[in-house]
Design brief:
- This protein is α/β, with parallel strands linked by helices and 221 residues long.
- Helix content is 51%, strand content 12%.
- It is built from six helices and seven strands, in the order αβββαβαβαβαβα.
- The protein has a five-stranded parallel sheet, sandwiched between helices.
- The chain starts with 7 loop residues before the first helix and ends in a 12-residue tail after the last helix.
- The model is unreliable at 216-221 (pLDDT under 50).
- The chain crosses the membrane at residues 26-46.
- Keywords: Membrane, Transmembrane, Transmembrane helix.
Amino acid sequence: MRGVIDHPDSTRTSGRRRVASWVRRTFFGALLVAVLVFGGTAFRVWQVAQVDQWGQADMIVVLGAAQYNGDPSPVLRARLEHALDLYQQGRADYIVTVGGGQAGDNYTEAEASRMWLVEQGVSAESVTELEVGNDTLRSIRAVSDVAEQRSWDSAIIVSDPWHSWRSRSMAEDQGLRTMVSPTRSGPTGEVRTHYILREAAAVLYYRLTHASAEITGHGLG
């Protein structure tokens, strides 16, 4: 009895099917991992946003947001009011305001912030303005430089809730002992979900590149 001989075309077809099956499994496996990583990051953004860390620090850092001819925007004002409250509680003796300006602006975000704080009774000597950085990473690096010059090693960062984890991570990467104390006036509902997802993407980008994601529009650089 003669044995059955596989036809060459049948063998090639079977091989292609195995390859296609492997490609599909690899693709969906990678997709599942990506979804899990992104979902876990988004959850961590949400989780840290709920935290208000209590303790003493060398400085309170107010991350910049829009200002209008020296008048802080509602987002920036909320940060400044919260920083003022922390300062009055004695959480730190100094406040550092950060943020550059747009072309044609009369004031920078840092300058507008400093003026507002001084108007509220904070001594001018207690406020340092850093008129650099239109994104978080450059602002944090500028803060780190000032901290090194003044032998400071700790900071309380004031920003929006969804921005807390990334800004804290950046500051810790610069060698600062960092706490976060976010405002409680950030976006809600669908807008909040949008910012959480956007911030999760920015965190992952930073982790992969150690560069800023250049998020604009809400002080989330």
